[in-house]
Amino acid sequence: MLSLIARTALTKNSSVWLPGIRAMSSGGPTAPFTTLSISHPATAVTHVELHRPEKRNAMNRAFWSEMVDCFSQIAADPDCRVVVVSGAGKMFTSGIDLMDMASDILQPEGDDMARTSWNMRRIITKYQETFSVIEKCPKPVVVAVHSACIGGGVDLITACDIRLCTQDAWFQVKEVDIGLAADVGTLQRLPKVIGSRSLVNELALTARKMYADEAKSSGLVSRVFDDKEAMMAAALELAGEIAGRSPVAVQGTKVNLIYSRDHSVAEGLDYMATWNMSMLQTQDVMKSAQASMEKKSPKEVAFSKL
Ligand SMILES: CCC/C=C/C=C/C(=O)SCCNC(=O)CCNC(=O)[C@H](O)C(C)(C)COP(=O)(O)OP(=O)(O)OC[C@H]1O[C@@H](n2cnc3c(N)ncnc32)[C@H](O)[C@@H]1OP(=O)(O)O
């Protein structure tokens, strides 16, 4: 049982930020899930833990659909303002479950090539949704990686908003080694995360491992920690910093950052203007501005749920 101490937390019955200590624990999968453990280590913070440690958190059939259900619920949950994702056990994840892969992806049904291909397309699109839901979720997602992050793990983390790792972490775009071009997000998102196109190409074409220091210097992760305990404490502290701020401002920031990543500056500004023509009318602006004038932290403001 992994027991981690949160350095800060919101008090249970208030939106006002106060320092506190909460235990963050790794039990087993949380019903109705069989591959995920969901907990609430601090008010407004949801912890999603990949939980198949005996199989190195390999992504089996259940995982691919449970992530969609989980993040759809989180997106609609007004009590959640920020998410932390991590892996239970020895490593973050060993990627797709190679045993399950054979029964699903490698044997699509269909009476002829057109129908088989159509079914295959539907399956791939469904798999893509497993990580796209993270990006579509307006709540920021902080991912904390320890030890190995292989194949589908890289697809997952590139859909997250903030990436942290331990000093012993390594990342591997492993798909070419199992005979396929990565098809659930890495090839689309990694080039937007890492500045160097050459490095992305090298990683994806050779499947070489990238270790923590290079992950940091290339921009894949923003911070590296000595061990998992330190990383999880920092992830929770970071989540608390985000959760203590206006959810209107925070979620609007995530949505517009992703929109601007995929559009021109002019299109991004246009989208922003349309977004804020309603969102600027929130009471959060007045509350935050008043707190600022009074030299208070935004974390001291009681924001309504969103
Ligand atoms: C449309 C779909 C798109 C998605 C594409 C995704 C692609 C990918 O993810 S490519 C990457 C696939 N993954 C791998 O190739 C990794 C394979 N595993 C390993 O290399 C090692 O297991 C690993 C280095 C991760 C861990 O080594 P360690 O010595 O710590 O543990 P093991 O004894 O090897 O494993 C423990 C048990 O876990 C099972 N397991 C590990 N990884 C997987 C996996 N990916 N799929 C299924 N099962 C896995 C392993 O068989 C052991 O099980 P058991 O023998 O029953 O104890």
TrEMBL record:
InterPro entries: ClpP/crotonase-like_dom_sf (IPR029045), Ech1-like (IPR045002), Enoyl-CoA_hydra/iso (IPR001753), Enoyl-CoA_hydra_C (IPR014748). The lineage of its organism: Eukaryota, Metazoa, Chordata, Craniata, Vertebrata. Pfam families: ECH_1. GO terms for cellular component: mitochondrion; peroxisome. It is found in: Peroxisome. CDD domains: crotonase-like (cd06558). The gene is ECH1. Isomerization of 3-trans,5-cis-dienoyl-CoA to 2-trans,4-trans-dienoyl-CoA. This is Delta(3,5)-Delta(2,4)-dienoyl-CoA isomerase, mitochondrial. Keywords: Acetylation, Fatty acid metabolism, Isomerase, Lipid metabolism, Peroxisome.
